[in-house]
Structures are given as C-alpha cells and as structure tokens.
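Lecture notes, continued. The same structure-token format from the folding unit now serves as the input rather than the output. Read the line below as a description of shape only.
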C-alpha cells in the first residue's frame, strides 16, 4: 500500500470520527437537562358528562363543585404524582450486549370519576404526562430521547395528553376492597403524531377516598415515526415499546 493510500484511509477515518463526535455533541447539547418548564396539571373532569373542563375556567369549576355538593354524584379522584409512575420499556444492543431500557417519570396528572352506585358510568379524564422528564439510566440516551426521538426538548412536544374516547369492561357493581379490570381507548400523541391506543387497566378501590391501579399497552415506534439516531454502540432497538402507568388517586 503506497503512502497516498494510507493517507487517504487516515483521512476517511478522521472524517467519520469527526462526524460521529459532531452528532454526539449535537444530541448532548440540544437534549437539554430534562427540566419541566412548568408545574404539571391536567384538564378538570366534569363528573356529570365526562368532558374535560379547562383548568383556568374557575367559574365553571365552581358551579360543578357546587352541584356536586348538593346532588348525588360520582366521586372525582386526582392522580397523585408523588405516588405514581409512568414508564416505557424496550430492548436494544448496547456495545454488543442485549439490554432492557426503562424510562420513567412521575410527572403525570389527571382525574378519574368513580360512580360507586353505577360503576359503568365512571369516567377517565385527560391524562397528561411530561415526557421531557422521562429518565433512563444513561444521560446520553436521555438527551437523545429529548433531542431526536421524542423531541420533547421542544416546547410543543413537552407534554403528551392521552385523551380517552371510550371505556369498556366496567363492572355492574363495586365496593371498597374490590379489584377489577377494564379497557380505556383513546388518542395518544407523541412527537407530533397521534395514534389510537387501548390501555388494559387494573384498578383497586382501596377506600372511599383512595384508588390504586395500573394501565398497560404496547405501541410501535414505527407508527409514530420515532427514529433512533445513528450513534456508535447502539443497534437493533425494538420497534415495540411497552407503556405503563402505575397510579394512585385521592378523592378531592
């Protein structure tokens, strides 16, 4: 091999390495620190018709609360972020080893309206998640998620609002201590793309003022156009992503 060929190979390697470093630097910088831009809240659920009310509409909220105080009505429960957890799970090859990647956040808000006398009329409000705050065990991966995959570093993609459209499988009766399962179908947006998904929910009526539950579903990255950036050491990321919400909600 002559000297010019050697120099050409060295130059090519330098270019590839330089490009890789540039990509890594871009991801790390644009991904940001994952801090929430504001305190999390979700639209208020109107227990009488299941519609979500704008949180800033104080007059309408006051009217609903006044009616609730004087008429038999479902009980509205608020999700408690400090006792709840949203997570995603997928698999990837990292430096040649197959691993499970789990990202979590407790930044979730929403309401459920439970009618103890007629559980079939119970409602689930908009569930809002701050996806910018999702964290895995790797800071570079976190920044790649925020900058390239979910693009949650951008203001318009910081939050994902799961908006329920239907509930099936609710029981005909319910009492404190009961555990039952049902399905909630709704629209889930991620990075500007919205798809209909169905969560399988298991819920326990711990007391008249506390409920606990878990909702699970599986989505495909390809359905949302979520691309994994090409970086050294990462390969064969699964298309399937398992989503889970573990929640505790307290009666307001």
């Amino acid at each position: 091999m002559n000297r010019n060929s050697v120099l050409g190979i060295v130059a090519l390697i330098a270019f590839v390495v330089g490009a890789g470093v540039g990509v890594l630097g871009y991801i790390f910088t644009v991904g940001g620190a994952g801090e929430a831009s504001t305190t999390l809240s979700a639209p208020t659920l109107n227990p009488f018709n299941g519609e979500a009310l704008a949180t800033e509409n104080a007059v309408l909220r006051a009217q609903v609360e006044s009616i609730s105080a004087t008429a038999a009505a479902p009980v509205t429960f608020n999700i408690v972020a400090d006792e709840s957890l949203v997570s995603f799970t997928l698999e990837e090859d990292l430096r040649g080893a197959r691993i499970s990647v789990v990202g979590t956040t407790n930044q979730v808000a929403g309401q459920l309206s439970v009618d103890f006398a007629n559980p079939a009329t119970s409602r689930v409000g908009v569930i809002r998640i701050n996806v910018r705050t999702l964290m895995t065990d790797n800071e570079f991966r976190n920044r790649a998620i925020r900058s390239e995959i979910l693009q949650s570093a951008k203001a318009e993609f910081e939050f994902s609002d799961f908006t329920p459209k239907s509930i099936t499988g609710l029981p005909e009766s319910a009492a404190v201590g009961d555990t039952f399962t049902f399905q909630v179908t709704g629209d889930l947006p991620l990075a500007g793309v919205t798809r209909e998904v169905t969560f399988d929910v298991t819920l326990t009526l711990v007391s008249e003022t506390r409920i606990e539950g878990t909702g699970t579903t599986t989505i495909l990255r390809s359905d949302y156009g979520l691309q994994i950036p090409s970086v050294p050491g990462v390969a064969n990321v699964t298309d399937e992503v398992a989503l889970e919400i573990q929640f505790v909600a307290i009666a307001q």
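Point for the exam: The helical segments are 3-31, 58-70, 139-149, 221-224.
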